[in-house]
Amino acid sequence: MSGGSQFSRISSLIDLHLRPCAVIEVSSVSKEEERNLLIALSKVLREIRLWTGEEIDVSSDGDAEAKSVTQIADSGEFALNSEEQIFLGKTVGDLMRFLMVHSQHVQHLTGNVLLAISELLSAYGKGWGFFVHLLFVYAELSIGNIHPCSSVTITREHEDLYGVSESHDPAIKSKLQKANWSTVAGIFQVLRCIWKYLKQDFKDQLVDSYLNSLNSFISHIPWNLLDDANVGPKCAHMGPQMPKFIFLGYFTQLLSSVMEQVDNKKVQHGSVNGHQLLFSITKLVPSLFLCCLGKEEEHDDARIYLYFRHKLLMLMTRLSGQGLEGSVLILWLQLLHKYFQDLMSEQISMVEPVRDDSLEGSPFSASMFEENIQGTNLYHLKRQAIFLFIRCSLSLIFNEEVVDQQCECLSTKPCLSSHPEYCSHKKVLEELYKWLCQNLQHDTHRGSELYIEECMHFGSSFIQLYAQEDDLLFKVLLEVLCIPIPGSEKFDEVKGRTPDSQENILMHLSNLFNPLNLFHSFLAEIKYDHQVLLDYLISKDTGISCAEYLLRCLRLISESWEAFLQFSYVRSAKKWSSNKERKISRQKVNFHLEPYGTGKFRHGHKLEGTRGKPFDKAKLCLLSLKYSVESLHQKKLFPYNPKVLLRRLTEFLELCFNKGCMGRVGEGKLT
């Protein structure tokens, strides 16, 4: 069947079943009209799904041409002609009307029809990119039409990559006269589902086409108009803000999902447009904070306010791994100070998470009208905010490429913070120091026994805070590994760039985040159970990050053997339970400092179920891990090649032998 007839086939199907319903008044649909419309939409949906099955069958029969078309989708060779664009444009325009109907059931079913058309065009191999781009264009023009209080109107002065402009279809504005935020939310619900489909069947051409259209949408929207603070009292007639928040919810979900899926190398090297999208999203972040958060009291539902905080933190975290400029990191520290100070001000050691410490779901997850969805867990937000604060701060302090950059906010507005001290390397270090100091229980002098105990206690509390989320745990541990150990060449190099007045701050930072102490605390937190480490290593979520963390720590151990050997901070621990096999104990634990070389622990406390010094237990844990990994690797049961890890563990074993540390551990003997 020719391309033109394929698109005319879809258009004719919609005309056949939905044209009788076109006279319905979208703002006041009756029960009978709603019923007839739902029946008509169901017929259209059923027929399109049948056609999609036929297209898939054709591709699976070995038709090389059909398969190649599906793979390259909307590349230049298979671009639509004007007749095909007209048919497809008419199809999208006709369905837009039913997204405006004031009926959640009609909007939902219309969205399903649009999804079905997307799958049909993807299977057919032609027209998919143009179709998706039209959805973004309709969302863009709808936003322009529903801002009557602004003298600014959205115009497309230049034709975009598909040649779509306002003059492309003279009737496009008339079709959107009654568009509202629910319409835009419905479009983005469809666009999110289309992206989910792409994630399952990742095809470069389709993904690149989608990202191009998303980038175009972001570039054309005057985001300052969505900030109600700039709209003024004359816009009071616009009504409740919930539909706008629903759109913003779907939009932030989509951005976060895109940043999760698109690999950094693909963005930077495989697609110029992908790199432009990365820049566009990064630049958009300050405006998203204003649009989504603004003032807490503006939100009808506190759950949505919490959810926006969660999604924006997640988006920033994923963007922050893309090598951002110092000016962006400085701006983000301002945003964290403005919107998350309440979460970051509480002492880490005072946090006692509840047993049900998880995300229960999104207020936008299933339906914009769904009730009784729990909000985002505050402890999760606290961990996210602190992680991002640490990542941005350490990048500014220890990354020579961004040191001493001045604040050049990407926003068109003035700085969102009244704290210009963030705008220098010196002040970033001071602000990090202030945050660390508020987490120490006593005002101690560096070098004193109490100070050492405070540092150890902070490290243990820090591990315990993140141990309840495996993915964040290893991310934050890898992040703080960039802090050099006092006496190392890296430390002396950073010290040389640090003003004399801040040398003590740098030393304090290094003491609190001493990687050897944190590694010991991490092993103590899992009760030196090598099976827990093995679970991490073979997990698809934490395997790579856990392996990287172990490798880097083992290298540090070989370089600082005596420091690792003399660690003497121990605690009582409880056995883990897990969503997989194990999970960290939710009980608060007490840590005690023991002078190295004595046979008893301070105050008579010992580790439950284990004996010996921390080094002995760490040694037994790591060597047991070595034997377990070797056994699985020999049986070809380990999910990836662990040779580098095994080599490092073997080097650790050799160090134990060479240093005469292979004696008894507890009641067992290493051989």
Automatic annotation (TrEMBL):
- Protein Lines C-terminal domain: residues covered: 621-652
* The Protein Lines N-terminal domain, residue ranges: 421-566
Going by the entry's taxonomy, the superkingdom of the source organism is recorded as Eukaryota
Q: Where are the transmembrane segments?
A: none
- The entry's protein name is Uncharacterized protein LOC115752392
This protein's species is Rhodamnia argentea
Gene that this sequence comes from: LOC115752392
